[in-house]
Amino acid sequence: MGVPKEIEERIIRRVEAKRDDIIEFLQDLVRIPSVTHPPGGDEGPVQQFIAKKYHQMGLTVDIFEPSDVAGIQDHEGWWPGLDYTNRPNVVGVWKGSGQGKTLILNGHSDVVHEGPHELWEHEPFGGEIDKGRLYGRGAVDMKGGLAAMTMAVECLQECGITCQGDVILESVVNEELGGYNGTLACIVKGYHGEAAIVLEPSDLKIEPGTKGGQAYKITVPGVGAHQSFWWEGVSALDNAIKIKKAIEEFEKIRHHQTRDNELYSDPLIFPTPAISDSVYSFVAGNPAIMGVPYETKMELWIDVLPGEDLDEVTKSFEDHIHNAALLDWYMKDNPPKIERVDMRPIYPTKMPSDHKIVHDLKDSFTAIMQTEPTICGFEAACDAMMFNMHSDTPALVFGPGQLGSAHRPDEFMDIEQLVASVKILALVIVNFCNYETSH
């Protein structure tokens, strides 16, 4: 049963009336730097700010460092070697009457480093607004999602609406760079529901599946020589170009293997369903030596999609690179070193596309946007993996903003989409958890 039109309109009016508050709350979050820098991170101050907000909303607030959760360091999903001092999770529970379903809304407060400030046209932590966009590191990934889920609950409270089921707001630490221990700590501590929405930037697409994958470091050898006697050496740069071409060939193979994946088949959204040719770091030679490069190092990521086996795909990639090297006169006897970057295994996951939360999100989106939503897979990996692998709470991704704006200078959140997401989330909460109204 859907939400009556009168309740829907009341929620929409309340969100519109709080537009400035929604924008200001996101600005406040962006202006508190919370950069992750393994093994530590700077999430403490922003988490304190969020905890204060949850207290003001009358939520039951739980503040805890992930490593302090009983039994977590023996859990199969725990990734060791990280420091959580002054990096607490903050959970706020809006208690229901006990008659409805529990919904978890999850977001991470850590952000990646902002990089050189001179590459930004807007202050990285300024929260500046320009032509309908709010700029700053974390604006889209994913303090926008944290703002949306918090303000959706506050708008419902101010509408005089309560829920029959619990709504659990999780502001977690340590998601970026494959941490994920923050969300795992919430799971192990006992926060469970009938569904979870991870508020990563999905451009308001409903995404029941997430990618997995593996980061690689490939070291390609050569023979150094004086640049005036280059013929006496073997250029590791030339060899690396050959390996790069092999990576391109592997991506073409993967394209054919994954083109029909049920969540990644739309070529307009996913020109390449499973990315492999994504070298994000490359080092060749040494200007202090000024000679033929004797070694190159590159790092890259390869995607694995829901329904695929992570170990099978990674083995096929390693075999492909090894076989390509065998075709080269030098590398057949001096093969490149292929190493898996030391990080937690990132598995692809998905939840059932016919689950009630998918239907309720679809209905709520349509009511607000007056069009049908797109249902597909998330372009990357995220904390939804932890729910779908290590709990009985099925999770999907849905949130404001475009993922392509993240991890780059002038990251931004589209303000209209932020406000729309608050309306949609408020509606999906009352749809999924059932509601009661005081007036």
From TrEMBL:
Cited NCBIfam families: DapE-ArgE (TIGR01910)
Cofactor: Co(2+); Zn(2+)
Keywords for this protein: Cobalt, Hydrolase, Metal-binding, Zinc
Sequence ranges assigned to domain Peptidase M20 dimerisation in this UniProt record: 209-325
One matching Pfam family: M20_dimer
Name of the protein in question: M20/M25/M40 family metallo-hydrolase
SUPFAM superfamilies the record matches: Bacterial exopeptidase dimerisation domain, Zn-dependent exopeptidases
Coiled-coil region: none
Species this protein is from: Paenibacillus xerothermodurans
Family indicated by similarity: Belongs to the peptidase M20A family.
MF annotations from Gene Ontology: hydrolase activity; metal ion binding
